[in-house]
Design a protein that fits this description.
There is one protein chain. It is built from 6 helices and no strands. The chain has 210 residues and is mainly alpha-helical. The protein is elongated, with a radius of gyration of 48 Å. The relative contact order is 0.05.
Length: 210
């Protein structure tokens, strides 16, 4: 089989010429094997019909295998010549032929340096695209977090509005002032509790010394 990649032919045909030749070779070989089995079956029937014939089926199989090997060797030689002709004259695109989809390269030729510059620019654009995608995802995540915080703040505001309404119903006056007084009272209670705890510790220490 040919080792030439024949990339341009593959682009045109949609398959590699070597693959085509391999399938043709396999089809011929399968047909040769099937034909030998048919010949072997016919020979067995004919010989079984001859009285006194001493040729056994195993002997017929050996003869068939020898003939098959002989045919395969000659077939491989003929196929090698056929493959060479087909790859050169049938499945080969001449060097001076340009496919329609590649004519734009003839109109706008470019050097290897220009192509490499385009490749570098393409990589930069791809990197920028990935960075912008990551930034967009981060912004979306931040917006989702802000929505959650906003929902919690709205709940807190609703709670304060409810407390203010309750204070008004019970004549407590302004909720903000009441809340400030409540905060001061809590702080005083905390200070008193802290003072009691300190005095309690001192009394325990005094009892231990006694």
């Amino acid at each position: 089989m040919s080792v030439d990649p024949m990339a341009y032919e593959t682009q045109f045909f949609g398959f590699t010429p070597q693959t085509c030749m391999l399938r043709v070779y396999t089809a011929f070989q399968d047909y040769l094997f099937e034909m030998m089995l048919v010949v072997e079956g016919v020979m067995m029937k004919k010989l079984n019909g001859i009285p006194g014939c001493k040729i056994s089926p195993s002997q017929i199989r050996k003869c068939t295998e020898k003939f098959l090997l002989f045919m395969k060797e000659h077939f491989d030689k003929l196929f090698a010549k056929m493959e060479e002709v087909l790859l050169q004259l049938v499945l080969n695109i001449p060097k001076n032929v340009l496919l329609p989809e590649d004519r734009v390269q003839e109109q706008y030729p470019y050097s290897k340096e220009e192509f490499q510059a385009l490749q570098d620019e393409l990589q930069q654009l791809q990197q920028q695209c990935r960075e912008e995608t990551a930034l967009e995802q981060a912004l979306r995540a931040e917006l989702e977090e802000q929505e959650v915080v906003r929902a919690e703040l709205e709940k807190i505001l609703q709670c304060f509005d409810g407390l203010e309404n309750i204070c008004r119903e019970h004549g407590a006056g302004n909720f903000k002032e009441s809340f400030a007084l409540l905060t001061q009272s809590c702080k005083k209670l905390q200070d008193v509790l802290k003072d009691v705890e300190e005095k309690s510790k001192k009394m325990n220490q005094h009892d231990e010394l006694m």
